[in-house]
Amino acid sequence: MALFKIERTSSPTPAEARRRLLGLPGFGQVFTDHMALISYSDDQGWHDAKITARRPFQVDPASPVFHYGQEIFEGLKAYHHAPREGEKGVALFRPDANARRFKASARRLAMPELPEELFLQALEELLKVEKDWIPEGEGHSLYLRPFMISDGAFLGVKPANNYVFCVLASPAGSYFSKGAVSVWVSENYTRAAPGGTGEAKCGGNYAGSLVAQQEAKRQGCDQVLFLDSANRRYVEEMGGMNVMFVHRDGHVSTPPLNGTILRGITRDSLLRLGREMGIEMREEPVDIEEVFAGARSGEIVEAFACGTAAALSPIGSFRRPGGEVKFGDGNTPGPVTLKLREKLTGLQRGRYPDPFGWVQPVALD
Ligand SMILES: *Cc1c(COP(=O)(O)O)cnc(C)c1O
Predict the structure, then answer these.
(1) Which residues carry this modification: N6-(pyridoxal phosphate)lysine (predicted)?
(2) Cα(18)–Cα(179) distance, rounded to whole angstroms?
(3) Atom of ligand 1 nearest to the CA of 241
């Protein structure tokens, strides 16, 4: 295993200021003092692994990342959990799944695959240095953002010879502020097409979805839902979260992984956890017409989005040019959504047993 060089910053955030920042961290605005870095070159492979002061990159302006978007990322959380009464520790949730997905994203973007052990070691080494930045508050966490960019100096359209892998850490508050979100069904834009990059976690997918998110906001909605690009009919996912529907008979449905949907780890965890709880969890095509008709007739009784950042985000309403459907009063999470959220977040925090071995304690000394 590679040895990480630890270069501590000479000007760390004073403890008092850190405590203040950790009190109300929000999301993605506060960063810790350090970052993990690993370089790659065709000649040397992965090398020069280190934890170092967080600072701006020096990247050549001709690097392919700026011109052709060769970039991938991940997102996961480190958090305090209580495995047993009186015990305390820090854990990650299924980080091995992030490491595997990062490799799959790299393959799709013609980037070098970072070995899973190195990915995991980078997280661990960074957490050791930044352990005082893991917030204690209920539902709070230290969000980790691993990503990789190409580094080079040429404008030819081909994969770069050099890459930088980096992990940022950002304290995050609880996402559960609002009752339920309103969702705009985009008919103008799609997120991914068969054979495209929809299954890769790459920045380009997000760049293409921002205008749809702006459209949603203009329509007074919080989030956007994308349909399949071929038929504009089957539900795919939100801009950065997967989506599930609760039916009257108690079963839960979510679109199958068909190559254009991101393989959410939360999605996968809920499919397995729901089955363990005795809920019938189905992966099946979801027709948007059936969603609107079902919400009106009472066949579909709840909907929610799921992803690492928010865990489960209840959906109160769907809107499109033709009209709107609400679940209940449009702002109250449904009982199945709440039960799944409680079970998942409770398992993560150590309030419930973890029969799957998903919660990975991190040794910080
Ligand atoms: C990251 C992401 C998700 C959620 O994946 P998790 O592993 O559950 O966090 C869903 N959709 C998109 C487009 C994403 O980028």
Answers:
(1) 201
(2) 30
(3) 10
Of 223, 225, 242, 271, which is best to mutate to test ligand 1, by the most ligand atoms within 8 angstroms of its C-beta?
Answer: 242
192: DSSP letter: -
Was domain 5-172 assigned CATH 3.40.50.20?
A: no
At 5, list the tokens.
């060089």
Q: Do domains 5-172 and 181-348 have the same CATH topology?
A: no
Per-domain residue ranges for the chain? 5-172, 181-348
Could you tell me the maximum CA-CA distance found in the chain, to the nearest angstrom?
63
| Residues in the ligand 1 pocket, defined by CB under 6 Å | 75, 201, 237, 240-242, 262, 264-267, 307-308
Q: Which of 145, 226, 241 to mutate to test the pocket of ligand 1 (most atoms within 8 A of CB)?
A: 241
Phi-psi region of 250 (alpha: psi -120 to 50; beta: other; left: phi over 0): left
Segments in the chain below pLDDT 50: none
pLDDT of 174 reads 82
The model's pTM: 0.96
What is the C-alpha separation between 187 and 320, in angstroms, rounded? 8
Identify the CA nearest to 318 among candidates 327, 308, 306. 327
**Strands (E) located in the chain:** 5-6, 34-41, 45-53, 71-73, 76-81, 89-93, 141-151, 162-172, 181-185, 223-227, 235-238, 242-247, 252-254, 281-283, 300-307, 311-320, 323-326, 359-362
CATH fold for the domain made of 181-348: D-amino Acid Aminotransferase; Chain A, domain 2 (3.20.10)
The ligand 1 atom at the shortest distance from the C-alpha of residue 76 is: 9
Residues 193, 195, 198, 203, Cα dihedral to 10°: -110
Q: How far apart are CA 315 and CA 302, in angstroms?
A: 7
How much distance in Å is there from the Cα of 242 to the middle of ligand 1? 7
- The percent helix, strand, coil of the chain (3-state, each to 5) is 25, 30, 45
Give nearest CA residue, ligand 1 atom 10: 241
Nearest alpha carbon, ligand 1 atom 12: 240
